[in-house]
Amino acid sequence: MSQAPLYTPHEAASGTAVSIAAEQQATGKFTPARIARPRAVKRIPGGKILIGAVVPLLLLLVWWLVTDVFGLFRPVQLPTPQSVFSAGAELFSRGELYQHIAISVQRVLTGFAIGAGVGLVLGSVLGLSRIADALLHPTIGAFRAVPSLAWVPLLILWMGIYEDSKVTLIAIGAFFPVFTSVHAALRHVDPQLVEAGRAFGFHGFRLLRTVQLPAVVPSVFSGLRLALAQAWLFLVAAELIASSMGLGFLLTESQNNGRTDRLLLAIVLLAILGKLTDALLGVVERKALKTWA
Question: What's this model's pTM, rounded to 2 decimal places?
């Protein structure tokens, strides 16, 4: 008794399977079945980066055309890319650019770590406890509606104009996205999954670590990435608190002095650093998804 051969979907659709079957029937020989295998997709090394660089390069080209070639803007309104690069080179040669970048990155990462950590803990507590949720969630929701600049005078009054007040403001900005994501995700974890974990003897923190948190890993990292972006947004407000260093300080100082070239330099650096830190967090997210999810 002969076994009917199997063919790939491509062969079946193109008629190749029919011709092979006819040949086998005429010769009386049946070849082993061929199993369909997914074809490897060829990827160009760095292709995703190249595609992502298309729009920034086009924007840079348009910027150069409207300022340097056609002269549609005055230098005080929109300086040329060359002048912005020259401003950055000048600050770099004086050793100031590195200091501005380093202090801002330090503030953002410290505030992000504190705010995200507290958000993860409180989000977990309120997501797992109905009593804590009913008690604290309305108050946290009310604080979430307070604008970032509204915290500045209070933080100056409580902590002065030193690093503590700046880091605290950034931590406030990073707290709410993580808290909201973790809280909402834990409230919607499949109850059958939780019951299965309890059936295996998991309770309390062990249940959270082994069952509930792995189920909400994608939501947690979504909150972390939003929190990181929020930390960079709050950085400018934080460096309004009597700062003498940082990209937010460079931004406001350039505005006060009419240095539009340095102002645009600060904006470009904030965009680049924000994207780089988000990309690093994306790498951690992919590794965490492979481990936990």
Answer: 0.80
